[in-house]
Amino acid sequence: MTIAFSSRLRALAICSLAVLASGAGLIPAQAQSIVVMVNGDPITDYDIEQRMKLNFLSTRKQQSRQEVINELIDDKVKIKEGKKFGVEPTASDVDQSFAGMGSRMRLNAEQLTKSLESQGVRPETLKARIKAEIVWTSLVRGRYKERLLVSDKDVAAAVAAAGGDSDQQGQAFEYKMQPIVLIVSNSSNQAVMEARHKEAEALRARVQTCADANNVFKTTANAVIKEIVVKTSADIPPNLRKLLDDTPIGHLTPPEATKQGIQMVALCARTPTTVDTPKKRQIREEMYTKKYEATSKAYLQEVRKAAMIEYR
After folding, report:
1. For 235, which DSSP code?
2. Of the candidates 186, 181, 208, 212, which has an alpha carbon nearest to the alpha carbon of residue 197?
3. Which residues make Cβ contacts (< 8 Å) with residue 17, sequence separation at least 6?
4. I want to staple 261 with a disulfide (CB 3.0 to 4.6 A). Which of 119, 130, 183, 257 is the partner?
5. What are the C-alpha distances in Å from 92 to residues 78, 85, 140?
6. Maximum pairwise Cα distance, the chain
């Protein structure tokens, strides 16, 4: 009797919230039909509809309704498991990740919100998915840190099995670089760009050390000398890596047109290092991803088995 009475109270409370929301013009009442209860937390038709729209925007593939329901159930159990271990991202954490996602799409948070709304998706729908991902990543990496480790021995064995390290990737370097830009405004014509390119070539011939580069470009009009950057072979694309390997220490790479103007890079040092080569980095990341996915899948199955999932 107590269980039945509690269930009725819960149902009445949820229905009341739905009526209030629809009365305020927030969410259509018919869209608030509860489909699943997960540990006492409802998943409604509206939740499912919203996630389906969001996923279609992300993948351009139409998922089945049950696939989306399973995904929403997963998010609910992830959030609850996070609370169990004190992993609860703040609204600020979620907003920061939301803004970061927009930035990768060259949009600010407000523009991303408007873009979603124009497609019929509330920003809260994406934020809910982001929150679950933050929680779950923290849980898996935190609880199973040792299990996810990829040893150097395993990486070396995998590299050997893949045919070894080749194409100048057998040795890794640490590059100490200083980018230099001769600024050209966006409104400038091609002739101005070509003139600055010739100027860059002439100045480049005068540089024999990074100290020379600083002295030369400090007195050059509309030139910017950026902070020194240190990267390893594994951090640099193959085309730039070859360019740096072909550049003598202290000299500048050939001038290149960019959005800011004409850019060159002063190579201040190129030092052999024992860190991962590009090939090893790739294999290490692939091995880690494989371990993470297997661990995450097993952990989620365990959490779902312990969850109270009630279809309506």
Report:
1. G
2. 181
3. none
4. 183
5. 19, 20, 22
6. 91
Report CA 286 to chain centroid distance, whole Å: 16
Cross-strand bridge partners of residue 264: 180
**Residue 106's CB: how many other CB atoms inside 10 A?**
7
Q: What pLDDT sits at residue 277?
A: 74
Given this model, what pLDDT does residue 272 score?
87
C-alpha of 27 from chain center: 31
* pLDDT averaged over 10-residue windows placed end to end, the chain, 312 residues: 36 40 44 89 97 95 96 98 96 96 94 96 97 97 94 85 60 90 90 94 94 93 94 87 92 93 95 79 91 97 96 92
For residue range 47-57, what is the model confidence (pLDDT) as tens digits? 999 999 999 99
Q: Are 77 and 40 in contact (CB under 8 A)?
A: no
* One-character DSSP codes across 26-93: SS-GGGG-EEEEETTEEEEHHHHHHHHHHHHHHHS----HHHHHHHHHHHHHHHHHHHHTT----HHH
Instruction: Compute how many other C-beta atoms are within 10 angstroms of the C-beta atom of residue 181.
Output: 21
Q: Is the dihedral of CA 229, 235, 240, 246 positive or negative?
A: positive
d(CA 308, CA 60): 32
**pTM for the full predicted model:** 0.63
Q: Quick check: 208 and 251 in contact, CB under 8 A? A: yes
Residue 74 neighbours by CB distance under 10 Å: 17
N-term to C-term CA, the chain: 20
pLDDT, residue 6, reads 38
Distance, CA of 73 to CA of 309 (rounded, Å): 8
Residues with Cβ within 8 Å of 18's Cβ and at least 6 positions away in sequence, in order, are 27, 29, 32
